[in-house]
Fold this protein.
Amino acid sequence: MHDRSGRITVQQLTKRFGPVTAVQNLSFTVEPGSVTGFLGPNGAGKTTTLRMILGLIRPTVGAAVVNGVPFSQLGDPARVVGAVLEAQNFHPKRKARNHLLVYAAAIGAPDTRVEHVLQLVGLGEVGERKAGGFSMGMRQRLALATALLGDPQILVLDEPANGLDPEGIAWLRNFMQSFARSGRTVLVSSHLLAEVEQTVDQLIIISRGQTMYNGPLEHLRKSQQTRVLVRPSDPEKMLAALHEANIYNVESMQDGRLAVAGGVPSEQIADLALKAGVSVYGIEEERANLEQLYFSLTQGQYTPGTVPQQFGPGQQPYLPPSVPPASPPPPPYQPYQPPSPYQQAPPPYEPPPPYQQAPPPYQQAPPSPYQPPSPWQQQDAPPSTDEAQQHDQGGLGGRS
Amino acid sequence: MGNAVKAEFRKIFSTKMWWALLIPAVAVAFVANLGFSALQRNGQDTSGVTIPIALISLGASFSSTSIFAALFGSMSISGEFRHRTISTTYLTASSRGAVLTAKLITYVVMGLIYGVLTLVFATLGALVGGGSSALPSGGSWLLISLIGIIVIMLWTLFGVGFGGLINNQIAAVVVLLVYMVVGETIISTGLNAGGATSVPHYLPVASASDAVIKFALDQFLSTLRVSSDVQSQVAERFSAIGLPSWWVGGLVFIAYASVITLSGWAISRRRDIS
C-alpha cells in the first residue's frame, strides 16, 4: 500500500526508444505543499518522464514512485494522482458531461462529483456540448476536470497553459497555488520559464533528458548575477583604479563603459572613481534575468557549432553585449550548480566550473531551428531592474 | 472490476457507434429472411410441401451480423488510441488488466445483444415473408440460434483483440472489413486453385460460418422428406469436398478468437502509451 505522503520520487530514470535516448539518468523528488515546475525545451524528455511517473511508459532503467510505490501498485490511482496530459483526449462526439461520467464510474466516484468538477473548472454551462466542439481552452478545462474527479492528492500537468487565454492562465495559476497550499502536490511542465515563473516554488530544469537544475526557484533567482556598468570620463584611468583596488573582473565594453562583475557594490566603484579623479557619467546595476539563466542551462541541448568570432551586436541574439568572467559561488546544497547566463552551457554530467575563463558569447551556437523563440531575443537592451523587481513580486509575494 | 465494466458501458452508450452498426446488421437479417422465406411461400403454392427454408437464411444472418459485431469490437481499444482516451482510461483504473478484462466482459454482453437482436429480426423477417411454416421446429431454431449467438460473441471478442493488436482504428476497421468481406474469399480461391482445397475451411471466416451454416444445413437436410440413402450421399459429397463437420469449424474458430483476443490483451498490457 502507498504511504499517502504525496511525494513523487524519480530515481535514475532512463528511457530509450530504439536508438533515441529520451530520458537519461534522471533523478528528482517532488514534495507536497509546493508547486514544482518541470522545465525544458521541447524534446527534452518532459512528457516521457511524466508518462513514466504515471505508469504509461515503462522505463528502460530506473524507477519512478508515487507515494512510495510504482503507479501501477497504487490500487486506486485516480484518487492519488490526477493528470492533465494533453487537451486532446476526448471522444469528439461524446458530451463533456458524459465524458466525465465515464471516468467517474471508472474511479467509483458518485455522479454528483461530475457536476462539482464541471462547476469548478467553469464548464457548468456547456456540459451537454460535445467535446469535439470545444475550444482549446475549454478542452484544457475539461482535461483538468477529469483529473480532479477523484479528488487527488497529486496533480500532474503537462504543458497546461497551451491554448489557454490569459484569463485561463491566471485562473490556472491561482488554482495550482491554492491546490498546493492545501498541502497537496503539483508538478507542472512547461517549455517556457516565463509561463510558470510566477507560479512555481520549486524548479526542475532538464535538457537532453538530464537534470540541469533541481531546487527552489528562489535559489536560482538569487544566483542571478549582478554586474555594475559604469561610464567613466577616462576608462583607462578608471580601469587602473579598479585594478589597484584588486578588482579584476572588469571588462571594457565597445561603448566605452566598463562592466564590473563579481558583486562589487556600485558605491565602492563610485568612491574609487572619486579618489582617482575620474568623473562618472552614469552607473547602473545590471541583472541577468531568469530567462537568460534558463536558456543557458538548456543550451547544452544543441551542439555548439563553429561560429566566427566577430559578430555585430545585432547578431548576438540571446546574450548581453559583453562577458563578465565570473560566476557566483555555488550554493552548497544544490546538486546542480546553475552556470552563469553569460557562460557557455556545460557539457552533460559536468557541473560548470565556478570560475571558468568564459569564452566570448559569440562562440555559442546560434539557436537551433527547433528552439522556440524567446521574447527576450528581440531585446536590445539588457533587462532593467524594474523588470527583475516585477518578477520578484509576481505570484511569489504571498509566500515568505 | 464493477467500476471498470460500468465505465465501459458508459463509453459505449454515450456515442452512436453501437447502434450505427447494430441497425444495419438487424436490417440485413430482417430483409434477407423476409426475402428468402417469401421464396418458400411461392414454392408452397405449386407443390403443397412446406420446408423450413428459413433455417438456411437464419444461419446466414448470424454470419452477416458477425461482420458488424467484429467491426464494433475492433474499435474498443483502437478507438481509445485514436481519440487518445487510453491514457485517461489507464490512469483511472486499478490496473491495465482491469481495463482489458472489463472490455472483454462488456463486449461479450454487446455480442450477445447483437446476436439476440439478429435472432429476433431474422425470425420476424421469416414470419413476415413465409409465415410460421418457413420456420424450423423449436429445437432446431434454438440450437442454431445458440450457435449463431456464440459465434457473434466470439467475433466481437476477435475484434477487440484485433483492435488491441493494431491500435490504429482506421487500419483495424479496414483490414477486418476487407478480410471478412472479400479477403478470405480471394485467399480461398487462390488456395483452391493451388490444389489445397481443404485448407480454406480452416480459415477464420469459413470456420465460423461453417459452425453455423453447416449446422443449419444438416438440420435442413434432416427435415427434408428424403430417404436416408440420399442423406448419406449428401454427407459423402460434403466430406469429399473437404467440408468438415459443423463442430470442427466451431472449434477452429474458438481457437482463432482465443489467440487473437489473448495476444491483443498481452500486447495492450505492456504497450507504452506515449
Remarks:
- The mean pLDDT of chain B is 89.
- Chain B touches chain A at residues 3-4, 6-7, 10-11, 14-16, 79, 83-85, 87-96, 270, 272-274 (CB under 8 Å).
- DSSP finds ten helices and no strands in chain B.
- The first helix of chain B runs from residue 2 to 13.
